[in-house]
Amino acid sequence: MTYEGTRFFKIIPNFVIQGGDFLNGDGTGVGSMYGPTFKDENFRIKHREAGIVTMANAGRDTNANQFMITLQPSSWLDMKHVAFGKVTEGLEVLAKIADYGTPNGEPAADVVISECGIVPQIDIF
Predict the structure, then answer these.
(1) CATH code for the domain in which residue 22 is found
(2) Distance separating alpha carbons of residues 98 and 56, to the nearest angstrom
(3) Number of domains within the chain
(4) Most CB atoms closer than 10 Å: which of 17, 58, 93, 118?
(5) Does the pLDDT of residue 28 top 90, yes or no?
(6) What's the domain range around 83?
(7) Is the CB of residue 9 less than 8 Å from the CB of residue 18?
(8) Helix/strand/coil (H/E/C) assignment for every residue in 62-102
């Protein structure tokens, strides 16, 4: 599984950038290497700053392939979205991506992940 070649399909200034739809590329594709969705793990990491990487979901235990990166503290996401990482370098890149945001979230231009790692498929059962 890789996000290489996928686009950030939602960019909301002063809130989040959202991507991870490796199925359809537009935010409509839902699935993961664990099946259609998977449960919330924990809510230990809080959305207290810009650069928090968190799961996008449609409600409790509906995590899949899509993720968001916060552009500012977003405490209203706490206990609703599982945060699992933090951008530690390159926050200026997030700011540049945010420049392509619009109020309705549709990017003003394509922003594509050109290079990233690959998570190997694992057998979880």
Answers:
(1) 2.40.100.10
(2) 17
(3) 1
(4) 17
(5) no
(6) 1-125
(7) yes
(8) CECCCEEEECCCCHHHCCCCCEEEECCCCHHHHHHHHCCCC
